[in-house]
């Protein structure tokens, strides 16, 4: 019989690929306020799998091998992640101060959210939002 995941495990968790997963962990912590929960490394110390948390959300990340190229190197969009935060204005300031490339300016949206978009250090697209009351 299959077991359910632990209560604090989201049902869906994106798995992002990075050429330098160690640098991604440091950047995601500094720019987006994530917390590292797990890090697995190869014998030479390279990060091949990690888990990052932001409040009750989780993002898994790793490096799939030498054939992988990130969006900055391919010029293609590989994915985007949408994250809800308590204070999108403060989050935007933190990301800006850490050097995130803002691709959609912080603004109230007609669908009832205040949101912005940013690229991470390897070109993955992130969107952060807070619902408008």
Set down the secondary structure blueprint.
Elements lengths: L14 E3 L3 H12 L2 E7 L5 E8 L2 E6 L8 H4 L5 E5 L3 H10 L3 E8 L4 E7 L5 E7 L2
Written overview of the protein:
The chain has helices at 21-32, 71-74, 88-97, and strands at residues 15-17, 35-41, 47-54, 57-62, 80-84, 101-108, 113-119, 125-131. By secondary structure, the protein is α/β, with parallel strands linked by helices. It has one domain: Roll (2,3-Dihydroxybiphenyl 1,2-Dioxygenase, domain 1). The chain has a four-stranded mixed β-sheet with strand order 1-4-3-2, with helices on one face. A hairpin with a 4-residue loop joins strand 6 and strand 7. The radius of gyration is 16 Å and the shape is globular. The termini are far apart.
CATH class: Alpha Beta
- Describe the sheet with the most strands: 4 strands, mixed
The averaged pLDDT comes out at 90
Residue ranges: pLDDT <50 for 5 or more in a row?
Answer: none
Q: What's the number of domains? A: 1
Percentage of residues in strands = 35-45%
Number of helices: 3
In the CATH hierarchy, what is the superfamily?
Answer: 2,3-Dihydroxybiphenyl 1,2-Dioxygenase, domain 1
Structural class estimated from helices and strands: alpha/beta
CATH A-level architecture? Roll
Query: In total, how many beta strands?
Result: 8
Percent in helix: 10-25%
CATH third-tier fold name: 2,3-Dihydroxybiphenyl 1,2-Dioxygenase, domain 1
């Amino acid at each position: 019989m299959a077991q359910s995941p632990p209560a604090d495990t989201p049902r869906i968790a994106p798995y992002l690929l990075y050429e330098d997963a160690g640098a991604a962990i440091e950047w995601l912590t500094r720019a987006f306020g994530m917390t590292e929960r797990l890090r697995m490394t190869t014998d030479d110390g390279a990060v091949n799998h990690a888990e990052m948390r932001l409040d009750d959300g989780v993002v898994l990340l790793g490096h799939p091998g030498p054939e992988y190229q990130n969006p900055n190197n391919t010029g293609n969009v590989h994915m985007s992640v949408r994250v809800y935060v308590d204070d999108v204005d403060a989050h935007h300031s933190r990301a800006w101060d850490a050097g995130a490339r803002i691709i959609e300016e912080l603004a109230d949206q007609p669908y009832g959210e205040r949101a912005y978009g940013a690229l991470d250090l390897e070109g993955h697209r992130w969107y952060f939002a807070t619902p408008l009351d």
